[in-house]
Amino acid sequence: MENKDYSSVVGAGSAPYINQLGHRYGLASNYSAISHPSLPNYIALTSGSDQGISDDSDPSSHRLNVPSIFSQLPGGASRSLEQGMPSNCATGDSGGYAVRHNPETYYTNLGRECSRYNVPFGAKPDLSARFTFVTPNLINDMHDGTIAEGDQWIQAHLSGYVTWTTTHNSLLIVTTDEDDSSHANHITTIVVGAHVKRGPDSTRTSHYGLLRTLLDSFNLSPFAGAAAAAPITGLWTS
């Protein structure tokens, strides 16, 4: 999701499904983004650093030959599903698709991985990869649309996966890139799955802590800022 602070989503009547997930599963209640604008947060979440980026320019301006969660899970073990993207691994904006919300396109060391596994979000999205990064379009990610529209999109497209996670060793993590620049970058992060402890966890964490948690769960060595961050541990039952 995009550009909404924690207090505008958690407890809001306009986000009934997100709040239902937060009450039934796990809520990281003290979770912060890294910076502003959008792109540095997407890069930080997937590479453990903002890589010195402080703008939303397209991949031609930021050619990143650095480790990322995508490079650590090759051969289809990681995948990106981008709503509204006109073609695989598209590197320019198109309609409701914003390339700055598609971090995989910025990593130059992936070879053909991006063209093969960075694909449009379709009617029957393939969520079978070990790690899948899902980005709605600019309306449904709350950037240009409302909180209600984003909430409805998650329920319409991912509620089936929510049900699946509860009987499998899997997670759905719903997070936000950044806040609206007026709430100290405090953002909403919901964690859903069979081994998730119900209710909020107030341990302070960030995109780096989430990346560290993901890398640990895949038995991958942490890198960059993820190596210094503590994994999120308070949300699990075991």
Describe what you observe in this structure.
With 238 residues, the chain is α/β, with parallel strands linked by helices. It has one domain: 3-Layer(aba) Sandwich (Alkaline Phosphatase, subunit A). The chain has 8 helices and 9 strands. It has helices spanning 6-9, 16-24, 38-47, 69-72, 113-117, 147-165, 207-217, 225-228; strands at 26-28, 31-32, 78-82, 118-120, 131-135, 172-174, 190-192, 199-201, 205-206. The strands form 3 sheets. The protein has a 4-stranded mixed beta sheet. Strands 4-3-5 form a 3-stranded parallel beta sheet. The chain has a two-stranded parallel ribbon with strand order 2-9. Helix 3 runs parallel beside helix 7. The chain is globular and about 40 Å long.
Structure, briefly:
With 238 residues, the chain is of the alpha/beta class. It has helices at residues 6-9, 16-24, 38-47, 69-72, 113-117, 147-165, 207-217, 225-228, and strands spanning 26-28, 31-32, 78-82, 118-120, 131-135, 172-174, 190-192, 199-201, 205-206. It contains 8 helices and 9 strands.
Could you list some keywords that capture this structure?
alpha/beta; Alkaline Phosphatase, subunit A; four-stranded mixed β-sheet; three-stranded parallel β-sheet; 9 strands
Structural class: alpha/beta
Strand order of the largest sheet: 6-7-1-8
CATH class equals: Alpha Beta
- Unreliable parts: none
Number of domains: 1
CATH superfamily: Alkaline Phosphatase, subunit A
Radius of gyration: 16 Å
Q: What would the principal axes of the Cα set say about the shape?
A: globular
Q: Would you tell me which CATH topology applies?
A: Alkaline Phosphatase, subunit A
Number of helices: 8
Oligomer: single chain
Distance between the termini: 28 Å
